[in-house]
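ligand=zinc ion
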Amino acid sequence: MLLAPSPVSYRHFQRIGVSQFFRIAPTLDDAIALLRPPSPVLAFPASFSCPICGNPLLARRTGAIRCRHCKSELEIASSEELIVH
Ligand SMILES: [Zn+2]
């Protein structure tokens, strides 16, 4: 679990190929929430916080999404799973 990595640090993790091994949380409360079992359903459109910078994001469906603020690439893999690329 990485707590609030800077975009520069996170991109470094991506470049060296280890970002997929970590779960990312922008705040301690988000980290605690990530450790809990997933909520059963994410209804679309879904609003959530970017796991990298914490700014609000809106997902209209599953698939790739890019944070407008930190430019991180995220994927809504299913109604229950968010993957950071
Ligand atoms: Zn972001």
